[in-house]
What we know:
By secondary structure, the protein is of the alpha/beta class. It folds into three domains: 49-148, Helix Hairpins (Orthogonal Bundle); 158-280, NAD(P)-binding Rossmann-like Domain (Rossmann fold); 285-382, Regulator of K+ conductance, C-terminal domain (Alpha-Beta Plaits). It is built from twelve helices and eleven strands. The chain has helices spanning 14-20, 36-50, 53-76, 87-98, 113-156, 169-180, 197-202, 215-220, 236-249, 264-273, 282-295, 371-382; strands at 162-165, 185-189, 207-209, 228-231, 257-260, 278-280, 298-305, 308-316, 336-341, 349-350, 364-369. The strands form two sheets. It has a six-stranded parallel beta sheet with strand order 3-2-1-4-5-6, sandwiched between helices. Strand 1, helix 6 (169-180) and strand 2 (185-189) form a beta-alpha-beta unit. Helix 3 packs across helix 4 (87-98) and helix 3 (53-76) runs antiparallel to helix 5 (113-156). It is elongated, with a radius of gyration of 32 Å. The model is unreliable at 27-33 (pLDDT under 50).
Amino acid sequence: MVEPGDAITFIGTTTDYGTAGLEPRIHRSRRPRPSVRRRTREMFAAVADAVDRPFRIAFAVLIGLAVISVGVLTALYEEPDGTRMNPLDAVYFTAETLATVGFGDFYFRDQVPALRLWAVFLILVGASLVALSTALLTNALVSRRLAQSLGRQRMIRMRDHIVVVGLGSIGSKVAKDLRADGHEVVVIDGGAGQRLIPQMNAIGVPVLIGDATVRETQTSVSLEHAAGVAILTSDDLLNIETGLAVRDVLERSDAPVVLRNYSHSLARGVDRALDIGIARSPTELAAPWFVGAAVGLDILGTFYVGSTPFMAARVPVHAGGGLDGVVMEELGVRARVVAIARDGIGTQLEHPPRRLTVLGAGDSAFAIGEYEELLRLLHRATVA
């Protein structure tokens, strides 16, 4: 019997939900500091993301011209006493020429005509490329700043949106999937995920660089009007701290808050002890995939029911195996078979199977349950 206050987990197809008149409710340990090398790489990646393709082309041509100039000067320039220009002097002279400084410490009046023509070419083309690169860089930075300003105004006006905290590999994937599903999404990141900002810009997801525990940042993304919050940084303690800060803002709202915790024991502890939100462990969800693959179980997906992880898997029925000829009501396991593909996986699904449905050799049984139960079901299928 189902009583008021109970929570029911439904499993079915979209058609099943529509036929039944059910509308799913959809709400629109500390890691070490990154090394200097990694921070430098991220900084250069952020700078590269800030400029557009025309600037990169102009800058590359400018660098190429400078390299050629160093080679030409080293090969052809000769002082009256026969001294050749060394590479360091060639780099120095090329830089002062491109910068239009001209200290007058090197002269081309007495050089061969080819070198004097090269000096004219270097002055004219180099100055043009420097001016062009400067203009393109200024345009890119101003445009980026303007886009950030407009994006901030857009975030403040958002309603019933999803706030994703942490622009890492998981955060970016969640933001993309939510956006593809038609939700308005805004991302808060501390700065480590700047290399992924162009991906977010491409799908129309604004990104705010800031601290999600700070009230000003929360106001900037209109957190109090959010339909849900996903806290997905790679720092477990930071996720908990952010969850506590977010809860204070959403205390009068029923918007769900989901936290990512690497440790499954910590995730369960947060679920039980702290009224923050729903804590989920990627490792707890991912582990069954590897366990199932190692023993030959075809895992289709993992999900939580309450705080218990469940799995969906395909179990083949072998001729003479323990499932060949078994009637559904005699299956005797806690895993539930929700569909059967007769004679393999490419035919029409029999959904849902009835109590008297019989499994036959060549069928594929699609089962849902805790992965220990699915492993028992697989073991039974492989034992004659």
